[in-house]
Amino acid sequence: MIERVVFLPMPPLIDPAIANGAATELDELRTVIDDALSEAVAATNTVAVLGTDEAVEVANYLLSRVAPRTTALPMDLSAEPNDATVLLVMGDGTAKRTEKAPGYIDDRAEAFDRRVSEIFKSAQLAELAMLDQELAEELWVAGVIPWKSVGGWVEEFGSSWKLRQLHFEDPYGVAYFVADFEREH
């Protein structure tokens, strides 16, 4: 049974070997991710990952930094998983926040990311299912499909969650969230 849900960004540049000269710009984000993962995976060797194949690769890289014996396995949320206790939800927020952003600037981006942040702060994860998919696609939100999937899963399996950590930053004009939730009993 999933006891922890950790939302993580999935920029390939999070790996300093890929980032070249930009590696230091993401140092704080790496530290926050390391802290969240260290605590979340402390008692497990396998975590489930929701996201693309690229997301699973990024998740395995992130896990290698703090828990080298832990493996990230892809999954879908069509049913409550039985063997994993930690679910990593990989995806980025909008990619149109500033002039430096890959998608340039869209005035709707900050409001969209603010809504995601409000959902995380309130720990009402079922509300993720109601994110506007069309708007998200226009804003280049790489996390919308896994986020909406988690929202539907929480709605279907009826559980409540407690926020343990929330971090946001937007280097390169892309919204990166780290949000760690624990199931309430």
Question: Would you mind describing this structure in some detail?
Answer:
The structure is a single chain. By secondary structure, the chain is of the alpha/beta class. The protein has a single domain, classed as LigB-like (Protocatechuate 4,5-dioxygenase, Chain B). Helices cover 36% and strands 19% of the residues. It has helices at residues 16-19, 27-40, 53-66, 109-122, 133-138, 144-157, and strands at residues 4-8, 46-50, 71-74, 86-90, 161-169, 176-183. Strand 5 (161-169) and strand 6 form a beta hairpin. Helix 2 (27-40) packs across helix 3. The longest helix is centred in the N-terminal third of the chain and has 14 residues, at 27-40. 39% of the residues are buried. The model has no long low-confidence stretch (mean pLDDT 89).
